[in-house]
Specification:
The protein is an alpha/beta fold. It is globular. Helix 5 runs parallel beside helix 6 and helix 8 packs parallel to helix 9. The chain folds into 2 domains: about 350 residues, TIM Barrel (Alpha-Beta Barrel), CATH 3.20.20; about 80 residues, Golgi alpha-mannosidase II (Immunoglobulin-like), CATH 2.60.40.1180. The two termini are about 15 Å apart. A hairpin with a 5-residue loop joins strand 6 and strand 7. The protein is built from 11 helices and 24 strands.
């Protein structure tokens, strides 16, 4: 473990009741720490539409369940989500004009008091709020603003809104996600987000900031040099996305951010949501595990974000859903939020945090060239450990000296059980024998 950071083995999976007030960046600049100096694994849930759709009893029920699972971050949109499900009540952050549009010069104090109450409830249960400040439909020059030009907040009013948000919510020590589903193809959009970053850091210098990027249709990213080099950006967040053919994005995007000239923690902020539709069906728990573990071992080790199709839009059975992506991806109708809340994949993602902390994997770095041509398998090494992810049962040859490791664990990630692996040395390579697990698995070796 890096100097100045306490080992995660000193901390607890089941906390003593003390929750971090805020989080910061480790001296190594590739993972988070809490305010006591312990490594902090970002285990977030996607609840974009909570502020507009969840009532207080529902919110309490949700928080209690996710707290039991070990989630510690909630990613929420401050402004109404353009593709949220229909809500039981109408409450908005701005007053409306006669034609039904938002008057961005007049804040609705009732809405923000409601948000404050919900944030207070979340903080009492130990969650770090990660608040999206300006989803891309509210920012000029983005792909979504071209589809919804009526949503765009003029730049001066947008900066005034950002100031208002920081003053209202900084007492909760949130992380600020300055954009959502954002492309940065225009200079206009870049200026909006640079302005938001500077405004936030001026008024809340200790707060962490990032930007949630649009999921690409092919493995690439677009983060302009001005934002990469901004002293106000604290960590990278990419979206590997939901399209069936985008299976390489968790790895390809992690690697691209890992190679950027400015080193920062990296989080896959939107892998495939459990239950969301694609061209051949819906994603299940195994798909989610595959996306997150391949991200973690490819450079995006600061944590993961989980999403359930029905939670992010806060959907209730019988209500309308506010999105149609015909011709792009058929996401299919969401589940009721209470059904989605209990998807088994959330437990798998929570188990991921447990493994990371129990084996103190915060110092791992991705390895290339140690697994031949099989890019589905990922490998990472730390000072005294090696981690290999197998997406399916298979015999695997590893071109690394496994003889220097004294102890091995093979973890069935579907059943969450541990076995002793069978290892053999032959023809200059170490062979990991195919396990009896008919699922994905994790091999961990310790010196």
């Amino acid at each position: 473990m890096k100097e100045g950071v306490r080992s995660s083995n000193e901390s607890r999976w089941c906390a003593t009741g003390l929750f971090p007030v805020r989080i910061g960046i480790a001296p190594s600049c590739d993972f988070f720490v809490d305010d006591r100096g312990y490594p902090f694994f970002w285990l977030a849930d996607t609840v974009w539409s909570a502020f507009t759709n969840a009532d207080f009893p529902e919110w309490e029920e949700y928080l209690e369940y996710r707290q039991k699972q070990g989630f510690n971050v909630l990613q929420i949109n401050i402004l109404p989500q353009h593709d949220a499900s229909e809500s039981d009540f109408e409450i908005f952050p701005f007053q409306k004009t006669a034609d039904g549009r938002f008057d961005y010069s007049t804040f609705n104090e009732e809405y923000f008091r409601r948000v404050e109450k919900m944030l207070g409830m979340a903080k009492e249960r130990g969650f770090i709020p990660a608040l999206v400040v300006l989803w891309s439909n509210y920012v000029g020059g983005t792909w979504l603003s071209r589809l919804r030009p009526q949503d765009v907040i003029p730049f001066p009013q947008a900066m005034r809104y950002v100031e208002y948000v920081v003053e209202a919510f900084r007492k909760f020590h949130p992380v600020y996600i300055i954009g959502g589903d954002t492309d940065l193809e225009s200079q206009e959009a870049v200026e909006y987000y640079l302005g938001a970053l500077e405004t936030i850091k001026t008024r809340d210098p200790q707060a962490l900031t990032t930007i949630h990027l649009l999921g690409p249709a092919e493995p690439r990213y677009h983060l302009p040099e001005e934002i990469v080099n901004s002293p106000h950006l604290d960590f990278y967040m990419y979206q590997s996305g939901h399209g069936f053919d985008w299976v390489e994005n968790p790895v390809a995007l992690a690697q691209q951010f890992y190679r950027l000239p400015v080193k920062r923690p990296i989080v896959n902020g939107e892998p495939c949501y459990e239950g969301i539709g694609h061209e051949r069906g819906r994603y299940g728990a195994a798909d989610v595990r595959r996306a997150i573990w391949r991200s973690l071992l490819s450079g995006a080790k600061a944590g993961v974000t989980y999403g359930a199709h029905g939670i992010w839009s806060w959907h209730k059975r019988g209500k309308k859903w506010g999105v149609s992506w015909e011709g792009i991806v058929d996401f299919r109708y969401p589940f009721d939020w209470r059904t989605a809340l209990r998807f088994r994949g959330a437990w798998d993602v929570a188990f991921c945090r447990f493994v990371f902390e129990a084996f103190d994997l915060f110092d791992i770095e991705p390895e290339e060239g140690s697994i031949g041509q099989n890019q589905w398998i990922r490998i990472a090494t730390g000072k005294d450990k090696i981690v290999v992810y197998f997406p399916y049962a298979a015999d695997v040859a590893i071109e690394k000296d496994l003889g220097e490791y004294r102890q091995f664990f093979l973890i069935d990630l579907e059943e969450r059980v541990v076995a002793k692996p069978v290892l053999k040395y032959s023809n200059g390579k170490w062979q990991v024998a195919m396990s009896d697990f008919n699922s994905d698995a994790l091999l961990i070796g310790r010196k």
